[in-house]
Write a structure and sequence with these properties.
Length: 465
Amino acid sequence: MGIRNPEQYWAGLRDKRTVIYRGERIGDVTEFDEFRPAISHSALAYEIATTHPDLAIADDGQGPYTAFYKLPRTTEDIINRGKLIEAVSRMGAGTIVLKEVGSDALFGLLRALDGPGLENARAFYDHCCRNDIALAVAQSDVKGNRSLPPHKQKDPDLYLRIVNEDKDTITVRGAKVHTSFSANADELIVLPTRAMSAADADWAVSFAIPMDTPGLSLYVSPYLHGERDPFEHPISSQHKLLESLTVFDDVRVPKERVFLNREPETAGPLAIAFVDYHRFTAVSYKLPLLDILVGTAKLMADANGISAAGHVKSKITELVTYAETVRGLAELSALRSQPGGNDIQLPDPLAVNMAKYHFAHGFHAATATLLDLAGGLVVTGPGSDDWADPDTRKVLEKYLAGAVPAEQRMRLLNLIGDICTGTWGGYQSVLATHAEGSLEAEKTQIARSYDPERAVRYVSDLVGI
């Protein structure tokens, strides 16, 4: 078992991985200025072992290892996992950091598999714990025509598939999309994206490989590109995520690293097993962001001198209700956790999907409320260069003061701009709608998880049916 520090994490990224950014091949990702804020952000997953050792370090008798990878066996384990994810997200300004997603995949593999695939997953899990591996997860296929299953696609590579197999390896071809942390993780876990039929057997595949495996190429999104000034962008100047289109060009995978090999009957259960943990991660890491929304709304109302107005009190109360409902459902999902396959505990699927749905459904209304309380200066106000100029600053201090000095008001306005507008705000908006599953996917899981028998039986008794 082992615990790495941030410096060791950075050093581990210096390899021969193939990373393409804005049409150019990137050599050393740690030396590329555009990626450094993202790597620093993800390094918080290693820093937390020092700042929060009681939460972040586990020891089951064989030496310390990262608590992100501690297998949940009890309700208390699920509760502590939620606390750990919330703590690291708080360090990351309300944004997911790194190890959360990879550990979700590990738990899903260990809970859903059996036979040789499970044996391989257990060996890989031990490897991750011993070496404190940073994992990315590739699940979402590019999908092509979404009305068609994998085997009916015009181009068979639109779902990742096995194209060759020998005694020691499988060879895969295709692409995954929305792969967070791919450029700044050590290894990649690949999972199926959906349930599959016998005709889709070639596409029913799961495995893990190092990021510098030949044939693996990472096309990193430029969406959050650009240097940001800390005064104008207090969050996005320090925190960033890298997302990629992840392409497998006849990648050979050793069979000891293969977890699912042409077993379509297991593809759907494995995909859902990952989601069971991943949505708990989602609602846990969103809690600091909800605190940011509520705290900023209160401070902005104070700065504008409108806190006593009835409609403002009502809006802040709505934000509090929204935030605390998500928190309550997240906590309920841990308290109601239940034993899953292979003696691994899982959060209550009903409560966790309700929490994620409630967060996603209410996020855009919450940011609209925050913008309403802030006013138009979020987009019409001055910038950091204006504030840095002494003569201009005197004007701003005079005319942009509210119930508080101008600097305090401007910093709050800039925070709201970072959260609600521009590229970072747009990124958060899309995450709320699609990350960790869409609203429709969450509604589907709510319907699957809810047992109506109690309610139906009660009503039947009332009316004498």
